[in-house]
Amino acid sequence: MVNTVRSTSGARLVADSSFVDETTSIDVSSIDTIPDYDDVVSTMSFGSVKPRPATRRADRPIRELTLPGHVGLASLPEQFMKSVTRNGFVFNLLCVGETGLGKSTLVDCLFNTGYEYRPRMHHSSAVKLETNSYDLCESNVHLKLTVVSTIGYGDQINREDNFRPIVEYIDAQFEAHAREESGESRLRAVGAYHDARVHACLYFLCPTGHGLKSIDVACMKVLGTKCNVIPIIAKADTIAKKELQEFKNRILRDIEANELKVYQFPTDDESVAGINALTNMHQPFAIIASKDFVRVGNRSVRGREYPWGVVQMENEQHCDFVKLREMLVRTNMNDLCETTHTRHYSLFKHERFQRLVKDIERIREENDESNDSDRSFASFQKTEAGQRLTSKISKVNNRLKVAELEIKRKYALLQQGQQELADKLSKQKSNLIYEIEVFHTLKNRLAKAQIIKEEPAKRNKLSCFPSTDGDSG
Question: pTM of this prediction?
Fold first, then answer.
């Protein structure tokens, strides 16, 4: 992580190399191509104003001074370590491979934990990416791990463009980081920014024993220029040991024949040069992953149990899982992050800048063509044919204006008629509502009058019946 932070500042200085002081020391050996500022400016047009070329002083040796007393510089590494430990580290892992090769299981085994994955549908018509983020902590060191896995990769009949969603995702993360660096986004200032650039890509190869497939070649050729690709052979326990070595050799020959770029563990650091050089000879790694624990003697280990024996995941005689974990997590995780920034991200910014220059040139050419066409038309208008054409155009424009006025007049009359009709209907509606209310009022009055009229008749009818009280007496 320390080198990553240094690399970030270094990349900015390289981008503005014309203004770097002679006392600045920058290592650009790992960067393929960096555009020179003067070369870029010379290809752009700024009208009559031209940028002033940068002046550079002659190189002078840097003086080395030994401080006579204690100042406190020795505490800088400790301060930096406290800062990065407090903020935590970030690692983004991309897993690319066909369905059923054990991508999720391998991630569980690499970080010795169990993640809860949602059930996935494997009949998608297109390739999709699933992103899961986790906060891991070990000995007070925090790591924000982001795992990006492909869904539906290689499941289609036409698999020619299966790699495009993956490349678009990687470029989108580079673009977001570039916007953050340029100040277009302010997430870093409020502490909400998360570096989502892909630091490592585990490319899962099917254990066919016949070398790389066409889909593997097409995808790895593109991904090799975007991120650190580490090819691994999935489910290596399905291949015999002798056949496995032959399969590795075929894969290496295919990689060399197709000029595919795969990540090589660095050998320039003396502390890890020996182990990295030895591990590079074992690529591609043959992996066995399992979530199950089996009993081997007095120990419980991860592995797969078969009728003829147990395949142990962490046994280097059975597979290369231990080598992969050692190289990916324990030894070279920081180098993966640094390489992502200094090589792949710098290349992306270079290509992005070149596209910007081309867009500016295209706009300038379009403006020049437009100005040329305007001047040509102006000179044509001065000729006799141009004057006749101008006269015809004027007549046509006049007729169009007259027709437009007539249409507007008819439209106004139509609107007026519609408004009058609407007012008439509204008035009729009001009258109808009033008549209905009058009708209901008269109806109620007639009903009451009928009731009053029938009351005397009912009383007379009741009086015709003799009283039964006298008979009882």
Answer: 0.63
